[in-house]
Specification:
The chain has two domains: 17-261, Porin; 273-355, Sandwich (Immunoglobulin-like), CATH 2.60.40.10. It is built from no helices and 24 strands. With 373 residues, it is mostly beta strands. The radius of gyration is 23 Å and the shape is elongated.
């Protein structure tokens, strides 16, 4: 079962984010005795994410000079709890297909349930998934349980560490009659800064703890955006067998040109858009109050009500009080540093105050980065 250990679920506001790109290039690929040499590759992805749902369609195809091929495609959808909740459930479904020359295609599907607990600089999750894979008229059920977490190494989210533990039970192997059961330990480091995206990962699989049968894997990729909508993608590593999709162990070294739009490029932090109520309103300020208290002020004098949610409210909406001059204020003990925040007026959409830089997450949400002295 493939587990996305880098996915995170945060309380955010704003609309959805769409991605669409195509990678064209070449690779040295070792997937089986059928396909093991230089190949031409084409890969693509369509994705739309919003605070409460996400849809993704991606695929890759490889072809050798002697007309052998390998190809796979995955379609997935997910539904999340409202972003105002700190504990957020996730329900998802995935369908996949894999084909290889001189072999019957593999078809798979999975259903997933997961619970997320997110904070200002990290979060944890726990979940389970179940499904089946069909190959050569043989159908096997695949069950999986997993847990993990992530940690931002800086307030802007440019560096992230993530890790997960997973256990997979794929039933009996048809050719040997042996049980397919194994545990995985997985870790990633990702870095995004301007036009550069780095991802380094690795893991260990225990096939039989009693007999000390282990397999390891590692991978690395870099995306260099050299123009709007165009990037150079370099990747290499080893991926272990994915029984939920019928994909064998693969070694690869690839280079490609990426064309299209990605929400991660060229930077994850941008100037705030004026998308809130009142184009010139909604500015937010923080002043020092008595003792360790801070006074948060939002300038939205025409609003009838203003709410704020942030990491320092545990992502719970908090009603602000209107001052005699018409501004909205909130007095609270807030530690110094960078915090993530969103506001809404008169029960409308959650938005970023127009004077704050904004950061997008993988779920299509957008929050502002507020510096507290």
């Amino acid at each position: 079962m493939a587990i996305a250990v880098r996915g995170r679920c945060q309380a955010t506001g704003g609309g959805g984010v769409g991605d669409a790109f195509l990678d064209l290039g070449g690779a040295f690929l070792s997937q089986s005795s059928t396909l093991s040499n230089g190949v031409l590759t084409a890969a693509g992805q369509l994705r739309y994410t919003a605070p409460q749902y996400a849809f993704t369609l991606n695929g890759i195809a490889a072809r050798t000079p002697n007309d052998l091929y390998s190809g796979q495609g995955v379609a997935s959808a997910a539904r999340y709890a409202p972003p105002s909740q700190r504990l957020r459930w996730e329900l998802g479904a995935t369908a996949s297909a894999f084909g290889l020359s001189n072999a019957a295609p593999s078809l798979g599907w999975q259903l997933l349930a997961r619970e997320h607990l997110a904070g200002a600089l990290g979060g944890v999750f726990v979940g389970a998934a179940g499904g089946a894979v069909v190959q050569s008229n043989d159908t096997r059920r695949v069950l999986n349980a997993h847990t993990g977490g992530y940690l931002f190494l800086d307030p802007l989210g440019r560096d992230e560490l993530s890790a997960a533990l997973a256990y997979t039970d794929a039933g009996l192997r048809p050719d040997t009659g042996l049980l397919i059961r194994y545990g995985d330990a997985i870790g990633y480091w990702s870095h995004r800064d301007g036009p550069v995206e780095l991802l380094v990962g690795g893991g260990l699989r225990a096939i039989s703890i009693s007999r000390s049968q282990y397999q390891s894997w590692g991978s690395a990729s870099v995306v260099l955006w050299f123009a709007p909508g165009a990037a150079l993608v370099l990747a290499g590593g080893r991926a272990l067998q994915d029984v939920s999709r019928g994909v064998p162990t693969t070694r690869y070294l690839s280079a490609a040109i990426r064309l299209g739009r990605s929400s991660a490029a060229p930077a994850i932090v941008t100037r705030a858009a004026r998308d809130g109520p009142e184009v010139d309103g909604g500015r937010i300020e923080v002043n020092v109050g008595s003792d360790s208290l801070r006074i948060v002020t939002v300038r939205l004098r025409s609003a009838k009500s203003v709410e704020l949610m942030a990491d320092f409210t545990d992502w719970e909406p908090v009603s602000m009080s209107q001052a005699p001059n018409g501004d909205w204020t909130l007095e609270r003990s807030i530690p110094p540093g960078t915090h993530r925040v969103a506001i809404r007026a008169d029960g409308g959409a959650w938005v970023v105050p127009p004077n704050l830089p904004r950061v997008s997450d993988e779920f299509g949400g957008v929050v502002g980065l507020l510096i507290v002295p």
